[in-house]
Amino acid sequence: MTRRPLARRMAAIAVSTAALTALAAPAEAATTAPAAAVDYATWQQDCGRVMSEALPYIQSRAAAGAGEKQAIVLDVDNTTLETDFGFQFPQPANRPVLKVAQYAQDHGVALIFVTARPGLLHWPTSYNLEHDGYRVTDLRVRGLIDLFKDVAAYKTAQRADIERQGYTIIANIGNSASDLSGGHAERTFKLPDYDGQLS
């Protein structure tokens, strides 16, 4: 049996990842037609603006957290990865978020990713994040039963569980209200989703 070249296998993973990510998006996003295409440069500028507020806070909080088990919780699609702009696999990192995450991880803060992606995408997602420079302490994906639950409730429950493991969640970063609602984080930082145009 001949083995497909690595490039073809990675391309197949990219297509599968994109298709399953689209299926995993909250149902309400599918019913809202985007008003206009989002410009990449504007998105990056807007993400940079939010992360320029997050960085000094995380610098200060990490410095004051001696003896604390600190974590940042991050969403994946259009937060840590350029899902709607990176049409290849691995998808590129969202550079403003990566810069903040790398500061945090270099100063002892755990990076825990909580995504609405289904469990089938655990390995390619983890690989993609690590490839781009994120140190993945933990990656939470939805199991079969979770796929039928409200995304916000699922993500809130994951953060509560992270706290039960002894972490203080100093920041929660995402681009959707469902990423950030429900508490269990000292601060939240919302990236743009342009009224649901970005998943």
TrEMBL record:
GO terms for molecular function: hydrolase activity. It comes from the Bacteria. InterPro entries: Acid_phosphat_B-like, HAD-like_sf, HAD_sf. Coiled coil: none annotated. Residues 1-24 form the signal peptide. The keyword Signal applies. Keywords: Hydrolase, Signal. Gene3D superfamilies: HAD superfamily/HAD-like. Pfam families: Acid_phosphat_B. This is Hydrolase. The lineage of its organism: Bacteria, Bacillati, Actinomycetota, Actinomycetes, Kitasatosporales.
